[in-house]
Design goal:
206 residues, alpha/beta, Rossmann fold, 2 domains, 5-stranded parallel sheet, binds magnesium ion
């Protein structure tokens, strides 16, 4: 098991989907709609195998207004199924009980996600932890997405902390790569979940 230390950490950052909650949007039909929209606007094909990859090409074209159209479509799809969102109990327990993990009160929690801001906020409300998350960096807040370091760097600049004072948790290799690209410690959420369960069991046996 990977040893996670929160000593000297001032900002703890989480991905959203697969990390705090499991969203249940219909990603395949979203992809179809995005492909169609892209073809309609640019009269060329982008397969949206990875959503960020095609959004990258829109950013390159500096079509900010068109980017907004795509954000709107993604937002709508995410929100349509938001009520079926499943909570990841251990992550939520961690956020609600940080003192049990030796985390000081002044330590901030942030979310860095490829989901749109509205879906992030709704998900956090569903999990009843909206008030515990101090900063949200969503799809609309950067123009280079994970695994580019921009989101983490944005969070670093906001808090004016050093990279050593930050730690990032996500569910994908892409998240680990984001940490690596930013020079910020990153772990898979599974490692945190194991740590949470260990502490919970210890408590139970006391
Ligand atoms: Mg994720």
């Amino acid at each position: 098991m990977t040893k996670i230390s929160f000593e000297s950490k001032k900002v703890i950052i989480f991905d959203l989907d697969g990390t705090i909650v499991n969203l249940t949007a219909d990603w395949m039909s979203l992809r179809d709609v995005l492909v169609e929209k892209y073809r309609e606007i640019y009269e060329e094909q982008c397969d949206f195998e990875r959503i960020s990859k095609c959004l990258d090409t829109i950013v390159e074209k500096k079509d900010e207004e068109i980017l907004e159209i795509f954000f709107d479509i993604i937002r709508q799809y995410e929100l349509e199924n938001i009520k079926d969102t499943q909570l990841i109990e251990e992550s939520i327990f961690f956020i609600n009980n940080k003192e049990l993990f030796g985390i000081k009160n002044k330590v901030k929690f942030a979310v860095l996600s490829l989901n749109t801001r509205s879906s992030i906020i709704r998900s956090l409300e569903l999990a009843n932890i909206r008030n515990k998350i101090d900063l949200i960096v969503g799809r609309e807040d950067v123009r280079r997405w994970k695994p580019a370091p921009d989101g983490l760097i944005k969070i670093q600049k906001y808090y004016k902390v050093s990279k050593k004072e930050m730690i990032f948790f996500g569910d994908l290799e892409n998240d680990l790569l984001t940490g690596k690209n930013a020079g910020i410690e990153a772990y898979l959420i599974d490692d945190l979940i194991k740590f949470v369960n260990k502490i919970k069991n210890k408590q139970k046996n006391n």
